Amino acid sequence: MGAKRRSILATLAFLMLMGIAVYFRLWAIHYNLSADDTRIIRQQFDTANREAMDESAEWRLRYDEEVDRTKKCLQELQVFQMSSQKEQDASHINHKLAILQKENAVLFERLETLKRELEEERLRCTSRYMK
What we know:
The protein has one domain. Helices cover 98% and strands 0% of the residues. The protein contains 1 helix and no strands.
């Protein structure tokens, strides 16, 4: 029994050594793959980062172009509003002028009426003194 026991222990020790060797071999393969994976992941990260930076720059360019276009539109709108305001002022002035001309005509007629009345009163006064 002693020889059989030694044989079993030797076989068990050999199998344990072989298991440990296989484990270390698998660990080394995994480590190499992990190192390669790390390099690949780093490259993918760098690529994604560059793409994100390019996209960010593209969106910034679009934003800047839109801001410029908006500024130009606002300037054109202000110019249009100023010219429109001038036209409104001119039309408002023309309207006021027409109203003032009408009022002037009414006042002129009133003045003529008052002059006639004054002349009539003078004639009455002079005709009284002559009688």
